[in-house]
């Protein structure tokens, strides 16, 4: 670290004053740790205190090296190495010094050592040792140890999960004024961890934690205002709180502030500002910030599209063991986003994310088993995974589970259950679920036909950018389903769906050009679009392409290619294609027999 960058005055002080300063710094660190102040806040306060004393930071560091004869100087040297104060970060050195102090019997550093074992700071991760050290600190009445022990019981760190025990420990830490314990107790009341759900109580505790300047409490309070947990929804208040957490340099708060700018929550949409905040969070090592930054590069949000950059960022998040990052990386390998397609690698990554309990990873693993992506097709396994994902309230898992019930994939057909699941996913604003629900109303799947509702749902899915919803809305305008016929509007929507790569949209756009629906007839365009959709395995497009080859529309007649595409379409269940395939095959065989006879 460059001392000049900190702006500190480099006044020399005598050794006695340095000794006092060390004691005061250590006292400050322990006090704030037990109050529940976060690491970055404590570090900032340490630097501010040194600056206020107009002390040469390098002189303090040198003095610490030469005065390793008491626990305070040993601890502060470890703290400086841990956080890169006056020196480069040296986590191994920090760990060794923390261990040395604990062996000397200083109870205040036991939690620091436990944290090293929990997170692998300067040593290998050993969650059992972390648990034992937190237990030891808690038994000695160290507030940070009490709170961290509660976290171990809540999350199963080095011990079996015991939600009741976690709740009791958070209560104890909160009663003693630990702001992180107060925040964690709020989480218990919000989610029913070791106690009954009580959103009002959760809100009050988050408010109390926030009043103590705990950035996580501030974030959770913002979440309450965003979702109406114990208080009326107030997006402007949410924005203010996330801004406050970001000002405290909480990387998660910076993320959420970015989301506000991206989605227009409590402020105007500003994709550029969102991108900058995600970059800042990513620079702080926040794995979710890294993922959000990757999404910006993938879709061009606030920056130019750069698929390779997004792939690298997802890979970085995956290396940090972020299950969402692992899932995103799997999707890159599945779809060829910024890298070459590798379905086996995608399958393995989805499995890894699923093992970590990621609901989207579980869903995507189900899709692998359903479609044979990187593994053998196993519809029963796919159904079970969709059910598991749905149980975790994943809207895509719920939608796919509905599809299983609608089509008998891994279970018996149950149209009513499919309708119920699509409705549930639609209520979660899943655009695919909304589209599927619209189809239920259009076709009477598990419910009565309501073309008006179908039209409204397709419009809603279109507003969310769902390509299938856009295509289906085009169908409504073409055929007058729930609205007046408008061929021009239908053509425009098919074009939009096609531009998004939707094979049905591409096929329907081809049909518009073939028959002059909302545009001039252009058989050549129709042929090219059918070819494109057929190559995407769209069975209707394959049938339409075969018709063109059979009849010589915009292309030279070619019975062999017609037979080829009729067969491809028939293999996907198109009965008209099957009939055509059989008819043309018979003609071809008769011709072969005749030619053989006359020869």
From TrEMBL:
Give the signal peptide, or none.
none
> Which Gene3D superfamilies does this chain map to?
Tetratricopeptide repeat domain
Highest taxon listed in the record's lineage:
Eukaryota
Read off the InterPro entries from this record: Mitotic_Regulator (IPR052945), Sel1-like (IPR006597), TPR-like_helical_dom_sf (IPR011990)
Put simply, this protein is called: Sel1 repeat protein
Q: Which organism is it from?
A: Glomus cerebriforme
């Amino acid at each position: 670290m460059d001392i000049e960058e900190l702006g500190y005055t480099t006044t020399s002080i005598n050794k006695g004053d340095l000794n006092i300063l060390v004691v005061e710094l250590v006292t400050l660190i322990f006090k704030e740790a037990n109050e529940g102040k976060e690491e970055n806040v404590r570090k900032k306060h340490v630097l501010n205190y040194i600056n206020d004393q107009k002390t040469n930071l390098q002189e303090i560091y040198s003095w610490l090296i030469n005065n390793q004869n008491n626990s305070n100087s040993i601890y502060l040297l470890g703290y400086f190495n841990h956080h890169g104060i006056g020196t480069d970060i040296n986590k191994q050195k920090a760990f060794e010094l923390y261990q040395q102090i604990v062996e000397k019997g200083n109870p205040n550093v036991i939690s620091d050592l436990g944290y090293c074992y929990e997170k692998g700071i300067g040593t290998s991760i050993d969650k059992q040792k972390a648990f034992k050290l937190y237990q030891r600190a808690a038994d000695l009445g160290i507030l940070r140890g009490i709170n961290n022990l509660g976290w171990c019981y809540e999350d199963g760190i080095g011990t079996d999960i015991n939600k009741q025990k976690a709740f009791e420990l958070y209560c104890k830490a909160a009663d003693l004024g630990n702001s992180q314990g107060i925040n964690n107790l709020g989480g218990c009341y919000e989610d029913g961890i070791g106690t009954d759900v009580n959103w009002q109580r959760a809100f009050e505790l988050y408010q109390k934690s926030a009043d103590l300047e705990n950035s996580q409490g501030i974030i959770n309070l913002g979440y309450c205002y965003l979702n109406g947990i114990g208080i009326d929804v107030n997006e402007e208040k949410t924005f203010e709180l996330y801004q406050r957490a970001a000002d405290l340099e909480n990387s998660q708060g910076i993320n959420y502030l970015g989301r506000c700018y991206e989605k227009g929550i409590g402020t105007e949409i500003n994709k550029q500002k969102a991108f900058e905040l995600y970059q800042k969070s990513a620079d702080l090592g926040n794995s979710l910030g890294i993922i959000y930054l990757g999404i910006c590069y993938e879709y061009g949000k606030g920056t130019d599209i750069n698929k390779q950059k997004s792939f690298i960022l997802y890979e970085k998040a995956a290396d940090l063991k972020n299950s969402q990052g692992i899932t995103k990386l799997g999707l890159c390998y599945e779809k060829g986003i910024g890298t070459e397609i590798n379905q086996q690698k995608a399958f393995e990554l989805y499995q890894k994310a699923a093992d970590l309990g990621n609901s989207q990873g579980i869903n995507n693993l189900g899709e692998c088993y359903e479609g044979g992506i990187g593994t053998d097709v196993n519809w029963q396994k796919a159904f079970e995974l969709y059910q598991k994902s749905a149980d975790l309230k994943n809207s895509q898992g719920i939608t796919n589970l509905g599809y299983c019930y609608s089509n008998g994939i891994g279970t018996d057909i149950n149209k009513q259950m499919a309708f119920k699941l699509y409705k549930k996913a639609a209520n979660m604003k899943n655009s695919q679920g909304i589209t599927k629900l619209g189809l239920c109303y259009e076709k009477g799947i598990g419910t009565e036909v309501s073309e008006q509702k179908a039209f409204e749902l397709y419009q809603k899915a279109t507003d969310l950018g769902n390509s299938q919803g856009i295509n289906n809305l085009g169908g409504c305008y073409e055929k007058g389903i729930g609205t007046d016929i408008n061929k021009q509007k239908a053509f425009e929507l098919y074009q939009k769906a096609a531009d998004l790569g939707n094979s049905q949209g591409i096929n329907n756009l081809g049909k518009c050009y073939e028959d002059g629906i909302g545009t001039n007839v252009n058989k050549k365009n129709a042929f090219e679009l059918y070819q494109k959709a057929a190559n995407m395995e769209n069975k209707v497009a394959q049938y339409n392409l075969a018709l063109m080859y059979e009849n010589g529309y915009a292309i030279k007649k070619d019975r062999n290619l017609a037979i080829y595409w009729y067969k491809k379409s028939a293999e996907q269940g198109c009965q008209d294609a099957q009939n055509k395939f059989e008819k043309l095959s018979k003609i071809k065989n008769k011709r072969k027999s005749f030619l053989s006879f006359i020869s």
